[in-house]
């Protein structure tokens, strides 16, 4: 495995050591080891059921791991609820199905976390929210409800909602898989902007174009294991494992 | 999707809908042979039932006369209501003090009507309710400002019905929500307690709970200690209704997609924040229709307190009918009661429909 991490000397922002996870008797994740440096962009791909979503969901404890260590920004994820809440506030997450709060307006969706978790005054939270809505080019929809927006717009709102918490890391769990082809680009554009600003990102996606142009590292998972990881150039042009070659031949 | 109109294609007007009474009748009542047959049969049945009823209720009827005058007529003797209105509505409340329960009821109605608008749900309203309730309690019980004390066993009629149902609903709702949350809890002790409570209460009729509260419960109290009978009935109604609310709310909680919990978790919200801000507002909105069903039956079930010798508005009406002068006019008296209950129930259900509309956010 070739390492292409920038500023390798500093402490990694995410560190996963020997992590295993089971669903009942089923061994979903096996011996996951991963270090993510600040500002690194990682794209994770692999066939469905390979455990890629489960892995990133472990990073903010939406799924519990049973063995090994996960350390996010110096905080280890254990059963301690305080630690979990600390990590969650620092790790933003974007879901396949957006998961906006349908009973709140777009603006309220964005201010909720700031007001209740960060204890930001309402006025300031609204200013921050509007700033991020500008950024994802959707400010004019602030007073609407999620149900009145298109899928692509909702996903951009979801990204802005995570950004409002000023996260150290952003996790994307197949952010474009539920979108019409016409809307995928508007979401990817927002993600590219974010990458250019130096956000640390872990992206589970099948958008290989995005992986090629944005990722520092592309990771291939199969059957609950990290099979191969490399910089995008070598990953796509010169895959090492048979399984990776097969996968790439099927999706490219 | 807001695509611009395509200038190269033709936009046709929607087909014209036929209007007018004849077209409506043909479309809706006579659009096939069996619908025509049903229409004719329905009209015949109505023609057979409505005119005699109308004659009985409005033409041959007396509206405010003595009981003797009613002996000579064919139609309805509505007089039973105005002639006995004081007893039907207020029951055994002492002579000369009637203004007190009337004022209390008006105050309650005014508060309820004022609270209807969502825009008025603020701090001021949160203060008006406890103050209003204290005033109502004082008016009913008396003991200060020169108002003689009226013990609760003299509270009867409509004020009693209103009190039992209002507090029954208002206290049972939050208790039911807590029970529903408890039943979903990961802590086995809390979960078991809630399940046992809910299933036990739902397994017995309200009448048995009322009996227990009024006959068995006092046996367990130490000598000389008593708890007010109305209060005991009130608590029984609250505990009973809460168990039903809990199950309905649980249904709403189960309807919430997991993604909502995950989104709240990923923002770092705590359990209570997630419930209060994200889950309950949506879940409770989904279950407005069945919740209102339960509240309506709770309202009507308050008439069961008659079996522990409390005189609600149904019982005061029955007592009126036992008066030899007025025996035989039960139809009229019960029609009046039915209208009274209907007005209350209809007001509740139409308010709930409006609330549902107001809370709708297009998803």
Predict the CATH topology of one domain in chain B. Answer: MetI-like fold
- Placed side by side, the strands forming the largest sheet of chain A appear as 6-7-8-3-9-10
Assembly classification = heterodimer
Mean pLDDT of chain B: 85
Q: Which percent range fits the helix content of chain A?
A: 25-40%
Order of helices and strands of chain B: HHHHHHHHHHHHHHH
Q: Give the N-to-C terminal Cα separation of chain B.
A: 16 Å
The percent range for strand residues of chain A is 15-25%
How helix-rich are the residues of chain B, as a percent range? 55-70%
Q: Tell me, briefly, the overall form of chain B.
A: globular
Structural class computed from helices and strand pairing of chain A: alpha/beta
Identify low-pLDDT runs of chain B. Answer: none
Write the layout of secondary structure elements.
The complex is a heterodimer of chains A (252) and B (363).
Chain A: E1 14-23, E2 26-36, E3 41-45, H1 52-59, E4 67-72, E5 75-76, H2 81-90, E6 91-94, H3 106-116, H4 122-135, H5 151-163, E7 169-173, H6 181-196, E8 200-204, H7 208-214, E9 217-222, E10 225-230, H8 232-237, H9 242-251
Parallel strand pairs in A: 3-8, 3-9, 6-7, 7-8
Antiparallel strand pairs in A: 1-2, 1-4, 4-5, 9-10
Helix pairs in contact in A: 3-4, 3-5, 4-5, 5-6
Chain B: H1 21-28, H2 33-59, H3 67-70, H4 80-90, H5 99-114, H6 123-141, H7 158-183, H8 188-202, H9 206-220, H10 229-254, H11 258-267, H12 271-286, H13 288-301, H14 313-322, H15 330-359
Helix pairs in contact in B: 4-14, 5-6, 7-8, 7-10, 7-13, 8-10, 9-10, 10-12, 10-13, 11-12, 13-15, 14-15
